[in-house]
Amino acid sequence: MYRYDSFDREFVRSRVAQFRQQVERRIDGSLTEEEFKPLRLMNGLYLQLHAYMLRVAIPYGTLDSRQMRQLAHIAERWDKGYGHFTTRQNIQFNWPRLKDVPDILDALADVEMHAIQTSGNCVRNITADHFAGAAADEIADPRPTAELLRQWSTDHPEFAFLPRKFKIAVSGSPVDRAVTRAHDIGLRMIRNGVGETGYEVSIGGGLGRTPVIGSVVRDFLPVADLLPYVESILQVYNAIGRRDNIYKARIKITVREHGIDAFRERVEQRFRIQHKAFTSAHQALLKRISAMFAAPAFIEAPTGAFDAALARDPVFRSFVDTNLHPHRNPQYAIVTISLKAHGATPGDATAEQMRVIADLAERYGHDEIRISHEQNCILPHVHKRDVPAVHAALREADLATSNVGLASDIIACPGMDYCNLATARSIPIAQDIATRMKERGDERQVGDLKIKISGCINACGHHHVGHIGILGLDRAGVENYQITLGGDGTETAALGERVGPGFAADDVVPAVERLIDTYLVLRSDEDEAFLATYRRVGMQPFKAALYPDTVLAAGR
Q1: Does residue 267 share a domain with residue 189?
Q2: Is the residue at 120 inside a domain?
Q3: pTM value?
Q4: Strands of the sheet with 185-191, listed across from one edge
Q5: CA torsion angle 427 177 5 69 (round to 10)
Q6: For residue 264, what is the DSSP state?
Q7: Is the pLDDT of residue 370 over 70?
Q8: What is the pLDDT of residue 103?
Q9: CA distance 254 to 273
Q10: How many CA atoms lie within 13 A of 179 on its CB side?
Q11: Distance CA 288, CA 36 (A)
Q12: Tens digits of residue pLDDT in 346-369
């Protein structure tokens, strides 16, 4: 993984020292909250409903054991003993005191971490496929690309004050595990007809109050052209993006207003200039960065212990069926650690659980950890002989829930329990659905089902791309939950379609159950997943299940 050089270390430390002075001035009253706000946002510090919240960057979701232990230490010393992993592959601490934030940032700098550009109208944390560098289906590791973009965008003087926040995601596989088409720029690593590696580039994706699936602006971009092309996109957006209306300032609106063809032509015109202006230095940098992401020294060893555990232990088999993914080395497995125990808060991990994950990564996982946009943790390189020991340790730490990809593996934003933008609760709804799925006992029979919940139209819970999406809104002071169906965040990306009127909080779980029961009746066989069934039969049978009285009345 990438290691800071002297410039990185000096840059981060200087930012911490600068912010320490700003915090002192806020505390002594020299700065008003209005004056302090843009300064704290540049350092990832928000003011939430009950306290400040610090959002820490985990670039492209990659950590090692030292960094995870430091996050655990921060959670215990300066917060309430836990952290919340987000859909941007960040971690949030929800209860720091303002006077302690500079000390937290210093502690992060000790392990090559920071909170820079996790907020503000700038290029945010670059996200990537959480199986990067390990997946059997990977064309190329996307992390060197993400790191190059991180270095280029950090404190970029031209892009520090964009019309709005800007998000980039990179996927290295034909299977899009990074939701690239829901980003301002999405990069999918592909090969052209002669086997060269490059990028399919999409722009103008995004969720929120105006959800849009990104449009492909370049079918194939050579690796050498990445930075000048991305810079061209941002220069065009920075020049013509709207600043008169915060709700129309994202690049998705700019692309829609000008049209994808006109926007593409502006980018290509700018690229012809930028391509000549760029030197080859960024290619040398990419080569140096790529060397830091070399595969670990994989071991050769018998996998008999794995096979034996699989044969004798049904609990272990269940874990293997849902939480393991094929590795590029057939003796290894990618192990996903669910942070979605039934009834728990999605994405939360205690300090002790973080330490368990760190210990397992160090002992069994070549000291590598990933954080997924689905709010889970991943050990990307575990030899199969060690998977039984990893599973046993996870069970002791209440981290062995075998539900990855199932109905209780729910993405949920913090909602009204923490966020001052939220209009409804998300966490209790997610907890209730997961608890009910455990009570039903048929979660495995239901199979692949992605439920995503947002507590407001900002869509931090990605509800628009959930197979079942749930959006919490305020209706005359009462929480009301809209349901969408058919969303998809993969390479076949699609936005969910709203079914009909919303539901009261107490009615959400029964509504989800009716959708699941309808699917179980309608699917062609046990292998047809919920999304495939929905695409085959359409909305109407699911709508009839949710609103039987309305449908009957319409038929009379």
Answers
A1: yes
A2: no
A3: 0.96
A4: 127-128, 168-171, 185-191, 197-203, 215-222
A5: 40
A6: H
A7: yes
A8: 98
A9: 22
A10: 28
A11: 38
A12: 999 999 999 999 999 999 999 999
How confident is the model over 316-350, as pLDDT tens digits? 999 999 999 999 999 999 999 999 999 999 999 99
Residue type for position 280: S
Q: Considering 381, 396, 411, which residue would you say is the last residue of a domain?
A: 396
Count, residues in the chain: 556
Both 220 and 262 in one domain: the answer is yes
Our count of domains for the chain comes to 4
Q: Which domain holds residue 503?
A: 420-555
Residue with tokens 């309430």: 80
DSSP state of 10: H
Distance CA 513, CA 77 (A): 41
Measured in whole angstroms, the distance separating CA 298 from the mean position of its chain's CA atoms is: 28
Rounded distance between C-alpha atoms, residue 317 and residue 246, angstroms: 50
pLDDT above 90: percentage of residues in the chain: 96
Distance CA 80, CA 348 (A): 12
Same domain, 345 and 466: no
Mark whether 333 and 439 lie in a shared domain.
Answer: no
Is residue 118 assigned to a domain? Answer: no
Name the nearest CA neighbour of 15 among 56, 47, 52, 43.
43
Does 473 reside within a domain? Answer: yes
Rounded Cα–Cα distance for residues 321 and 331 (Å): 16
Q: What is the largest CA-CA distance in the chain?
A: 75
Q: Are residues 286 and 153 in the same domain?
A: yes
Q: In one letter, which amino acid is 302?
A: P
Q: Which two tokens stand for residue 355?
A: 């330490």
Given a cut of 90, whether residue 47 has pLDDT beyond it is yes
Answer whether residue 303 is part of any domain: no
| Cβ-based neighbours of 89, under 8 Å, separated by 6 or more | 58, 59, 60, 61, 125, 127, 128, 130, 371, 372, 373
Q: Which amino acid is at 223?
A: V
Residue 357, amino acid: I
Q: How many CB atoms lie within 10 A of CB 246?
A: 11
